[in-house]
Amino acid sequence: MYTDINFKTKKQLKDAIAQGRKLTYYQPGPFGGSAPQDGTISLEGPHYPALHTWYARAEVKDGYIIKVMR
């Protein structure tokens, strides 16, 4: 899955969460629309067509990323 903001590094994502920003996410392609609203998701970035240079597991609640676990 991708975050709605195209973060170039995982640190940028973590910093945005630490600042209290409300970040959303989505599943691109033919599998889109099936992203869970609550639970744990896997993220990758930056967005295609750039090569993915970071991956993360994140906790989500009510459709927002609340914590990056690794």
* Poorly predicted runs: none
Strand order of the largest sheet: 3-4-5
What is the β-strand count? 5
Helix content: 10-25%
Which of globular, elongated, flat, extended, rod-shaped describes the shape? globular
Overall tally of domains: 1
Beta-strand portion reads 25-35%
Spell out the key features of this protein.
70 residues; three-stranded antiparallel β-sheet; two-stranded antiparallel ribbon; 13% helix; single chain; 34% strand; mainly beta
Notes on the protein architecture:
By secondary structure, the protein is mainly β. It has one domain (2-68). The chain is 13% helix and 34% strand. A hairpin with an 8-residue loop joins β3 and β4 (54-61). The longest helix is centred in the first third of the chain and has 9 residues, at 10-18.
